[in-house]
UniProtKB/TrEMBL annotation:
Signal peptide: none
UniProt-listed SUPFAM superfamilies: Nucleotide-diphospho-sugar transferases (SSF53448)
Domain Nucleotidyl transferase: 2-231
Protein known as: Glucose-1-phosphate cytidylyltransferase
EC code: 2.7.7.33
Top-level taxon in the UniProt lineage: Bacteria
Species assigned in the record: Paenibacillus rhizophilus
Keyword presence, RNA-binding: no
GO molecular function, one term: glucose-1-phosphate cytidylyltransferase activity
Organismal lineage: Bacteria, Bacillati, Bacillota, Bacilli, Bacillales
Length: 256
């Protein structure tokens, strides 16, 4: 089963980093966040990736073109016809298809453009800027259990600020640091999709999270997989630093 990763956006909300490289190549613990996402899928046996490129897509192409070299011990022998000797191979068993899906193409359009690489198979899909401890086997099992066209992982994120309950005399009766939100479930970005989903996408200017998902919902073909574990998007530099701290602490919840 293929895992599709959307990696073509501008990443304007984290422009401190994204002006130099595409957002999925921003590093968490000296590895691109894209690598962390792929390692999660690989842990569950999903090693066939289709990555949708756009903004600064060549940076991602160059990374994977040299990935085997980056992860191996080598000797360059310039005395013997510029020979390169590989001593230890450490690269993952990945097959990575990199598809230029356009600079201005929106999320639905990027999906539509890779339809030929999916064929008639069920596939996974996520975004190139979020990390989670989601159990992908359980997600897939849930999808297969209901037989609908699409499954989206949904979660209840913590609030941005702590919440306090005050008495009439203004005594703080209860305090909770960053409680869950207002009981609403949001898109956590890990999908399982049937190929019929491409029929819901009109073209490059289609936002997948708008008309396609709304129509799937209206027709009863969209199911939500409830997930209450770790989930954190990397929208801002603050998010990036938070994820970096988790990784360096040795307790990154998404690390399998």
């Amino acid at each position: 089963m293929k895992a599709v990763i959307l990696a073509g956006g501008y990443g304007t909300r984290i422009s401190e980093e994204s002006h130099l490289r595409p957002k999925p190549m921003i590093e968490i613990g000296e590895k691109p966040i894209l690598w962390h996402i792929m390692k999660l899928y690989s842990h569950y046996g999903f090693n066939d990736f289709v990555i949708c490129l756009g903004y600064k897509g060549n940076v991602i192409k160059e990374y994977f073109s040299n990935y085997y070299l980056y992860n191996s011990d080598v000797t360059f022998d310039y005395t013997n016809h510029n020979e390169m000797l590989i001593h230890q191979r450490k690269a993952e068993p990945w097959k990575v298809t990199l598809v230029d899906t356009g600079l201005e193409t929106l999320t639905g359009g990027r999906l539509k453009r890779i339809a030929e690489f999916i064929g008639e198979e069920t596939f996974m899909m996520t975004y190139g800027d979020g990390l989670s401890s989601v159990d992908l086997d359980a997600l897939l099992a849930f999808h297969r259990s209901h037989g609908k066209t699409a499954t989206v992982t949904v979660t209840q994120p913590p609030g941005r600020f702590g919440a306090m309950q005050l008495s009439d005399g203004q005594r703080v009766e209860a305090f909770q640091e960053k409680p869950k939100g207002d009981n609403s479930w949001i898109n956590a970005g890990f999908f399982v999709l049937e190929p019929q989903v491409f029929q819901y996408i009109e073209g490059d200017r289609t936002v997948f999270e708008q008309e396609p998902l709304e129509r799937l919902s209206r027709e009863g073909h969209l199911m939500g997989y409830k997930f209450e574990g770790f989930w954190q998007p990397m929208d801002t530099l603050r998010d990036k630093n938070y994820l970096d701290q988790l990784w360096k602490s040795g307790n990154a919840p998404w690390k399998k």
